[in-house]
Amino acid sequence: MSRVQIALLVLALALAALLGWWLLRTPPQPAPPPRPAPSDLPQTPEADAEAISKLRREIEPLRQGGKTKVIFRAASNEELQSYRGWVDGYLGWALKGAPPSVTAPPGFRLLELPGVADLLAEEASQKRGAGLLVLRGGQAQPWVLEVPHSFFDEGTLEIGLNAFVWRRARALLINTVHRYRALATAPGDESPDSDEDATSSSDVAHAESSFYLTAHQACVDALGDVGVVQLHGFSDSSAPKADLVLSAAGSRANPAPIAQALERAVGIRVAVYPTDIRKLGGTRNVEAHYSIALGRPFLHVEMSKSLRRQLTTDPDQLRRFVDALLGSSG
To answer: Closest Cα partner for 167 from 25, 1, 318?
Structure first.
């Protein structure tokens, strides 16, 4: 066989191998379409109601057993550092629209609700009262809503959930275990001075170290001059002359115009701490302390049991309440 014939044979074999590879190769998969950010979707009463329903269905299992069954376990420094890195990564994604680069730490997971929000939460099989962070990607209003006593202060979760969706807030923090779960015995619900009680390590509004506080710190650090609104409740007998108590808790927030807006919009009696009332001011609140240290506004909202009952059974009144509260605060 001549050299020319050998060269042609080698070329034919090479072409055959190339053709075989082309036919057998895995075709490239198209990139998945980007999931819509909540801010990109139309805001209608129907869309809002669906978003609230989806969030409620995901949140309730995460809170199940939080009052009597879940064994609370405080976090170690290493766990808090790992969690903080995860939250920071997701906040970076939320603000820039870039894919998250930090995976969930052990015991935690990401729950995605496309078009609604993402939930950064503990694994269902490893509940320990770590709380959860609901985070909105894409454009969002500069609000962080906090519900630290969702079991103790009944109704605050529903109010916070609706406010998060209606006002397109950036984040919603929710506790997943009762504030007194770490204690062998617990005081009765809504004790008169509940905002000043710092006796339980499972009380995320007063514990000096928790996943909840870490999430608050990450949000305040990343979001700049964000308005933090923390929702609480008190028994009617604790402040019989007020339906609601507003306090800056020592921060630079200005409750006075918010109080006026609420009185006009909802027709309720609003007391401002400390000028109108000397209690229920949230002055020992650890989230407030962190916001104050950074010079950020923090609004502590105390609602009577009667008011919470009204708001959670009257959607129109609740909408007016949320618009007045978040239309002026920060």
So the answer is: 318
Give every CB contact of residue 186 below 8 A, 6+ residues apart in sequence: 178, 180, 200
- Retrieve residue 1's tokens: 């066989």
Distances (CA, A) of 261 to 202, 275, 324: 34, 17, 5
Per-position b or e across 25-54, b if 16+ CB within 10 A of its CB: eeeeeeeeeeeebbeeeeeeeeeeeebbeb
Query: Which residues, 6 or more positions from 86, have their beta carbon under 8 angstroms from its beta carbon?
Result: 102, 103, 104, 105, 108, 120
pLDDT in the model for residue 66: 95
**Tell me, what DSSP letter sits at residue 221?**
H
Going by pLDDT thresholds of 50, 70 and 90, the confidence category of residue 198 is low
Residue 238 has pLDDT above 80, yes or no: yes
Q: What is the pTM of this model?
A: 0.85
| Per-residue confidence (pLDDT) for residue 65, from 0 to 100 | 95
